[in-house]
Amino acid sequence: MPEQPPSGRRERKKAATRQKIADTALRLFLERGYDAVGIRDVAAEADVAVTTVFSHFASKEALVFERDADFERRLARAVTDRAPGAPLVPALREETLALVRHCLADEAAPVWRMIDTSPALREYESSMRLRHAETLAAALAAEPGAPGGATACRAVARFVVDAFALAREADDPETAVDEIFRMVEAAWEAAGAGVPAGPAT
């Protein structure tokens, strides 16, 4: 589900500035190395103030994961915005597969190599996944017929979010997604969900 473009001149200008900062930061990180580049370097290269960088990104790590909020929303909307009567687990599987394909594109490979070799970025990614799982758990808990306990929804949500990392590391990511979501479906049903999950094909 693609993110809607910002409406209004001010919003478009703000989004363009944010994208320029993120693109500049990523280019510098890949050219010079993540640890060798500071926020001031990014601001100078992007021709913005340091405060402008921080108005768009809370930390240096967030510059690398600039699609973070978009991915978080997409997972929740796979639940909340699916068609009436559409089964839950296949909707989550399709969104997860789309995210995996996005992050396995050829142009993303250098970025993931950088992330994998940086303890700070790996730690940020781990905390990001936990946050995404909490957002997804809230969406699952709001489903009609969802398991009564919050723990069950949180457990299934973490399973879904971790599917991305597991698939990214697999030799055959798409097959890995299929295997993982068969277990997600079983876990959702075992939790006592009253809404049919549907086949995770």
TrEMBL record:
Q: Which segments cross the bilayer?
A: none
The protein's matches in Gene3D superfamilies, at most eight in alphabetical order, are given as: Tetracycline Repressor, domain 2
| Protein origin, superkingdom | Bacteria
Boundaries of each HTH tetR-type domain copy?
A: 15-75
Protein name per UniProt: TetR/AcrR family transcriptional regulator
Q: Which Pfam families match?
A: TetR_N
**Which ranges does the entry annotate as DNA-binding region?**
38-57
Spell out the SUPFAM superfamilies in the cross-references: Homeodomain-like
Q: Which UniProt keywords apply?
A: DNA-binding, Transcription, Transcription regulation
